[in-house]
Amino acid sequence: MLAYYIALSVGLQRPSWAIITVYIVSQTSVGASLSRSLYRLAGTVIGAGATVLIVPAFVNMPILCSAVLTGWITFCLFLSLLERTPRAYAFVLAGYTASLIGFPAVTDPGAMFDTAITRVQEITIGLFCAAVIHRYVLPKRLSGLFNSTLAETLRSARQRLADTLSGNVHELHVTMRLAQSLQFLQGISHHIPYDFTLSAPVRQARKAIHDRLARLLIVSGELRDRLQMINALPADLQRLLNDVQAWLTCEEDVERKTRGCALQQYGEQVMQQRAAHVRNREQAVQLSIARHLTEAVALLQQSERFAAAIHHAKPLPMEAQEQGIKGYVFHRDPLTAARTALGAAVIIFSGCLVWIFPAWPDGGTAVSILGVCCTLFGSFDTPAPHIVKYIIGSFWGVVISLLYSFALLPQVAEFPVLVAVLAPAYLLAGSLQARPPTTFMAMGITLTLPVLCELGAHYSGDFAAAVNTAIALFAATGFAVVGMSLLQTVQADAAINRLLALCRRDIRHSIKGTFKHDDVHWTNLMIDRTALLLPRLQRSDRASGQVLNEILHYLSLGLAVLHLRRITAPAGSDVARDINEVLARLSRRTDLPALRQRIVVLIGIYSPAADEATRVLTDRLVDLHCALWEREKEQMSD
Q1: Distance CA 131, CA 36 (A)
Q2: Residue 269: enclosing H or E segment and its boundaries?
Q3: Which end of the chain is more exposed for a tag (fewer CB within 10 A), N or C?
Q4: What angle do the packed helices 439-452 and 384-403 form, to 10 degrees?
């Protein structure tokens, strides 16, 4: 209502845009609302500028002008699908702002520049009011949600490690929660700079703790594989495992920190003692277990220190400042994004043809709404159900709008009375919009009501215009449901198979030495891919455990290959020749059991390690052997 009042006071033509803007950018926290406002402003300015350049250049050529506008909208959609962070909202806005301004101006370009300027002005007013209210009136900070989620993620990570060491068969469910928690933390983390509560150094701590927790997930999986390969642990290794299990149950922070330091020292001693007596594969695997147990303790302790630094807004500990920090790595698939954008182009341009050739008077409005649907819902694998929810909300929005326009608003003469009259509908719709299950239905109400009611400086009450706009709305959204069901729907199994195929492609590149990133990047990338798989597994016919085991296998195998590639050996030496032989046979993947036996022979040849370089080589060979063993075991069980 503040945005509406200001827009009316300065005499803007369509104050309804200011109202709509407030409802679109408003989120349940300060940081998310402010960041969304900034991205919407940037996208609106870019989209309006593009429209001002496109429409006059193709005046009197409606087909060509529509084609160029469609190309711009789908290009923005393509960029938004590649971005995958909240910044993608700026690309979405750049696309659908051009749709809302451009298509109605194709047949009437005279008022297009004024429309673009007015839209930017009114959206700026809406953004300013939303930002001020969310910032200063009962602000809800993201820092508390981030800290509580991080604490729960740390507990989940400790539980995952404890389940691994105890052989808990439900471990994979904990893995799912951990991967999704890391993705959720990244989503919150992006908005925290706009929350005005945490200092800049904390950003590096958030990245560092993600690196540690992602690595911990891998260490837990590798411990699981190695413990299954060993029938009975030696006394010193069993004692280390028991001590780690006891340490994981500690509730007191001080006690956990003290015992953790002692555990790391004992783990180092066990590793040194065992490294000098490795003679065969089994002893090498035992050494690897000691190494991973010690690393797991160190990773948890570092994560807890970083969590404390984040909670108290302190600078990053020196141990992390001295190391490269990656943070969350997003999976990006240009081919899938291009497919979705191409489908949107076909849908929008088809709508343009249906509008232009029959000369439908409200066709420009319908196609502009169609463009909004394709950009706003294009990021979903199955957009149709979400658009249906929006249609349901729009139906109620039309009913409420007609009730207001022709029964209530004609009797209103003062602005305070107007606020009181609008309050019931908007408070109800706003509360529904804050709940994820009803968000899109509520948006159908909040976006339809101010447009159909024509909330301007004066009451108009044009029933024919309201009905024609409603027809255009339902025609566009219905066309979007049909078109997006045919051209922009991605089946869950197809999406899962695509992700797994990309994992195999990256491993092939790693074997050839053409993968340009390090092991931390690979780990964080695979964590994101795992998080992308999880919601799709609920709609898939494939067994979730099988798919998750497969992607964890690819994760471990890719790490083993990257680590082998990192080993430097003189050209022509035995080490270089053996590494090349192993990678060449792995690239063919024709006889993996024979390759695993060859790795066992190489472990025996290079054991006991005469120097640090040889010890690293045997460790990496053990990692590759265990990754292949786990895959062979899964294939036998299938």
Answers
A1: 10
A2: helix 253-275
A3: C
A4: 40
Task: Please give, one letter per residue, the 3-state secondary structure of 426-449.
Answer: HHHHHHHHCCHHHHHHHHHHHHHH
Amino acid at 198: L
Q: How far is CA 33 from CA 108, 140, 446, in A?
A: 35, 10, 17
Predicted confidence at residue 483, as pLDDT, reads: 94
DSSP state, residue 378: T
- Beta carbons of 294 and 272 less than 8 angstroms apart: no
Give the span between the Cα atoms of 607 and 67, in whole angstroms: 67
Residue indicated by tokens 């640090």: 612
First to last CA, the chain: 62
Nearest to 20 by CA among 472, 430, 365, 446: 446
Tell which residue, 475, 233, 304, 250, has the closest CA to residue 373: 475
pTM of model > 0.90 = no
Return the beta strands (E) in 259-379 as ranges.
none
pLDDT of residue 91: 95
Q: How far apart are CA 447 and CA 398, in angstroms?
A: 10
Peptide linkage before 608 cis (omega within 30 of 0): yes
d(CA 581, CA 340): 42
Distance CA 215, CA 220 (A): 9
pLDDT under 50: residue ranges of the chain: 198-201, 322, 636, 638
Q: How would you class 592 by CB atoms within 10 Å of its CB: exposed for 0-12, middle for 13-18, buried for 19 or more?
A: middle
Q: How far apart are CA 518 and CA 497, in angstroms?
A: 24
Unique residue bearing structure tokens 């999880």: 534
The secondary structure of 217-256 as a DSSP string is HHHHHHHHHHHHH-SS--HHHHHHHHHHHHHHT---HHHH
Instruction: Enumerate the H helices of 58-141 as residue ranges.
Output: 62-83, 88-106, 112-136
| DSSP conformation class of 359 | T
CB 503 within 8 A of CB 526: yes
Task: Please report the sign of the dihedral spanned by the C-alpha atoms of residue 514, residue 520, residue 521, residue 523.
Answer: positive
Closest CA to 621 of 631, 610, 613, 611: 613
Residue type, 273: Q
Residue showing tokens 């983390």: 189
Query: For residue 531, which amino acid is it?
Result: A
- 269's CB contacts (< 8 A; 6+ apart) are none
Asked whether 188 and 145 are in contact (CB, 8 A), the reply is yes
Query: Residue 103, SS3?
Result: helix
Q: Residue 481's pLDDT is what?
A: 95
| Residue 117: strand, helix, or coil | helix
CA 391 – CA 445 distance, rounded (Å): 9
If you write DSSP's letter for every residue of 468-492 in order, what string do you get? Answer: HHHHHHHHHHHHHHHHHHHHS---H
CB 78 within 8 A of CB 132: no
What span, in angstroms and rounded, lies between the C-alpha atoms of 580 and 578? 5
Q: Quick one: tokens of 456? A: 């301007």
3-class secondary-structure state, position 156: helix
Return the exposure string of 149-166: e unless at least 16 CB atoms fall within 10 Å of the residue's CB, then b: ebeebbebbbbbbbbbbe
CA distances from 220 to 55, 226, 257, 472, 590 (A): 58, 10, 20, 56, 29
Rounded to the nearest angstrom, the gap between the alpha carbon of residue 34 and the centroid of all alpha carbons in its chain is: 19
